[in-house]
Every structure is written in structure tokens, then in C-alpha cells.
Specification:
- It contains two helices and nine strands; from the N terminus they run ααβββββββββ.
- The chain is α+β, with helices and mostly antiparallel strands.
- The chain has two domains: 35 residues; 78 residues.
- A hairpin with a 5-residue loop joins strand 2 and strand 3.
- It is elongated and about 100 Å long.
């Protein structure tokens, strides 16, 4: 019996191998070549990867938020009561956090970062460097 069982096992093994081979032969090659095709997204391997940024005021209270065509701006308040400015570029994801912020009676917040002043109110964002206006954008919301 041992010899007969062995022959049957070998036959079954041969059928299994033949079945696996048939699957490989009968499977359309289009599925395999699709994996080799470039992705249809706008991803470019030479472009720098951007790490997701957390917008808003993480670990702080949001006092006010503004949006222009190119920037998202948040005025935040720490647990200690200090006001700070967070600005995000919609174009490249860069951000700035400025802790030195003053508020005006007209609803304007001014954040001073060295020789650059970021001024934001419900109407406009303005950035001045050494007293000269280098950017002005209307606030959309």
C-alpha cells in the first residue's frame, strides 16, 4: 500500500503544480503590466515630499481664523493667555508661528517676527519688512 499511496501523492502533486502553472498561463498579462505603468496622479518622484501640517491651533484655543487666496491664518491663545499667530501657505504648506502679537481696537492683529510684521484683520493680510509692504491679500473669510 505504501507504494500505491506514494504514487497517488505524486500524481496529486503533479496536478497541483499543473494547476498553478495553468493559472499563471491563463492570467491576462494586462494586470501585470498595469503595475509597471506610471501612476496617473500628479506625484513626481523628484518633487519634495510634504509632511501633513496640522492647521488651526493645536494645544491652544482658536481666537479667530482668516483665509486669503494663498494663506490660512489663525490667531491662537495659549493656556497661559498669550496670543500667537499661525500662518500657513496654501501653495507649499510652509508655516510660521509668531508669539509676539499685539491687537488693535479695529480688530487688527500684528505679529512681529524680527523685521517682519504680519498684519491681519477681517479685510486684509499685509506683510511688511523693514517698514515696506511686501504682500497684501484680501481676506476671503
Amino acid at each position: 500500500m505504501f507504494g500505491k499511496e506514494r504514487v497517488q501523492v505524486i500524481k496529486r502533486l503533479g496536478l497541483v503544480i499543473a494547476g498553478i502553472s495553468a493559472i499563471g498561463i491563463l492570467t491576462p498579462t494586462a494586470a501585470a503590466t498595469a503595475l509597471n505603468q506610471p501612476a496617473s496622479s500628479s506625484f513626481s518622484p523628484s518633487a519634495p515630499l510634504q509632511i501633513a501640517q496640522v492647521e488651526g491651533c493645536p494645544k491652544a484655543e482658536m481666537v479667530q481664523s482668516f483665509a486669503t487666496a494663498n494663506f490660512s491664518i489663525y490667531i491662537c491663545k495659549t493656556q497661559e493667555g498669550a496670543i500667537f499667530y499661525r500662518g500657513f501657505s496654501k501653495r507649499n504648506g510652509s508655516q510660521i508661528n509668531v508669539m509676539q502679537v499685539t491687537t488693535g481696537d479695529d480688530g487688527t492683529y500684528e505679529a512681529t517676527n524680527g523685521n517682519i510684521i504680519y498684519s491681519i484683520n477681517p479685510d486684509r493680510l499685509q506683510v511688511r519688512q523693514n517698514g515696506k509692504v511686501i504682500l497684501t491679500e484680501s481676506v476671503l473669510k
